[in-house]
Amino acid sequence: ERLTGGYYLDIQPDARQLARYGLTVGDVQGTISAALGGELVTTTIEGRERFGVSVRYPRELRDDPQTIASEVLVATADGAQIPLGELATLSINRGATEIRTENALLSAYVYVDTRNSDLGEYVRLAQAAVAEAVDFPPGYYATWSGQYEYMQRAAAKMKIVIPLTLLLIFLLLYLNFRRVSESLIVMLSVPFALVGGIWLMWALDYHLSVAVAVGFIALAGVAAETGVIMLIYLDQALEKVAEARRAQGRPVSLDDLQDAIVSGAVDRVRPKMMTVVAITAGLLPIMWSTGAGSEVTRRIAAPMVGGMASSTVLTLVVIPVIYALVKRHQLARINARPTAERAGPDP
Asked: Where, residue-wise, is CATH 3.30.2090.10 in the chain?
C-alpha cells in the first residue's frame, strides 16, 4: 500500500493574528468549511424528489492556495473582512492517500506476495528481520495479518480437530472389533498410508495448509476403512483354520497362522484394487482442475491421490505383517497353556 502520494491543503491558524482581530479558531474553520466545502442553504422539491442546495466559492476562487489565501474572507465582529492568508498559513503537503483505522488506531498496510515460498517460513524470517532492523517508536507496532493470520487460526483449530479425529477413529475401531489389539493394528499402520500423500505433496511443491490437512484427515479415514476390511478378511480366514484344527483336536500352529494370513490377504487384493481405482479416478479430475477454487481443491485431493498408492502397500503388506506379529504372540501364549484351558478363547 502506498503510504504517501495524496496531496492535502494544510491550513495552520496563526494564534497571534487571530487575537489581533478578535477571532477564534472556530471562526476560521467555519469560514473554511462554508467557502471550500459548501454549506446547505435550502432544499428543492421536484415532484417526489428532494435535492439539497449547497453554496460555496466558485472553482476559480478555490483552485490554488494563493487564491484561497487572498479571496476567502473571514468576517470579524465589527464587520471587517480579513483575507484568510493574514490569519493562517496555507501549504500543500503530501500524505496518505486514505486514512485507515483498526481497533481505533491509525494503521497502514504493507502487502507481500509469497506465491513461490512457504508462507509460515517467510513470515518467521520476516519477523526476525523486522525485529532486528526496525525500532518502533512508542505507540507503534507491527501485526502480521492476512492469510498468515488465517493460517494461525486454522492451525490452532487443527491442534484440536486432528487428535479428536484420531480418537474418534480409534473409538469406532474398538466398537467394531471389541478388542484393543486389532484397533491398535489399524491405528499404528495409518501413518504408513500418509507417506504417499507426503511424497506427492513434495513432488507438487505444495506447502502445509488447511486444505492439505483436510486431505490428510480424509486419507486417514480411508486408510482406516480399508484396514478394517483387511482385518475382517484375516480374522475370517484364521477363524476357519482354528475351527478345522479344533475339529482335529490339535492347536493352531505357526504354519497354520501364516497360511490363514496369506489366504485372507489374497482374498482382499481385488476389493482393494477396486477401491484404489475408484477413488483415484474420482480425484484425478480435481487434481487437473484449473477453475475457480481449484487452488484449494487440488490441495485437498493431492494427499489422497498420493496416499492411495501407499495405502495399497499398507493394506496388502503392512497390516498382514503387523497382524501376524500380534497373533503369533497371542498364539504362543495360548499354546503355552494346559490342554484343558487351550480350548477356551480363540487365537
From this structure: 6-102
Measure the CA–CA gap between 185 and 202, rounded to whole angstroms: 28
- Residue type present at position 67: T
Quote the pLDDT of residue 117.
Answer: 66
What pTM, to 2 d.p., does this model score?
Answer: 0.56
Q: Which CATH superfamily is domain 150-342 in?
A: Multidrug efflux transporter AcrB transmembrane domain (1.20.1640.10)
Q: Quick check: 224 and 169 in contact, CB under 8 A? A: yes
Three-state DSSP class for residue 117: coil
Any residues with CB less than 8 A from the CB of 276 and at least 6 apart, and which? 308, 309, 311, 312
| pLDDT under 50: residue ranges of the chain | 340-347
Q: What confidence tens digit (pLDDT) does each residue in 57-69 have?
A: 898 888 888 899 9
Write out the residue limits of the CATH 1.20.1640.10 domain(s) in the chain: 150-342
Long-range CB pairs of 242-250 (<8 Å, 24+ gap) are: 242/346, 242/347, 246/343
Helices (H), the chain: 15-21, 25-32, 65-71, 84-87, 119-133, 147-177, 180-204, 210-248, 254-267, 269-287, 294-313, 319-335, 339-342
Q: Which CATH architecture has domain 6-102?
A: 2-Layer Sandwich (3.30)
